[in-house]
Specification:
The chain is mostly helical. It has one domain: Non-ribosomal Peptide Synthetase Peptidyl Carrier Protein, Chain A (Orthogonal Bundle), CATH 1.10.1200. The longest helix is centred in the middle third of the chain and has 15 residues.
Length: 81
Amino acid sequence: MTTTNNDRLTAAFVEALQIDASRVVDGLEFNSIKEWDSVAHMTLVAALEEQFDIMLDTDDIIDLSSVAKAREILGKYDVDF
């Protein structure tokens, strides 16, 4: 089975936030759940960089505020969903 970019995005959130994949929805936002605090945010950045073999700019790290925003940011790095 082929792994999609959506699967990889979900995997990064699951790994970094230690949450169930069913919770990874576009409306999930930074600090909206206890698991997504500032420490988990940096873990998420590392997981996204690893999953997609990219290096996020500082502005993108700061702007990463939701699953939907993650999709938008990754689009700047030629990741299609």
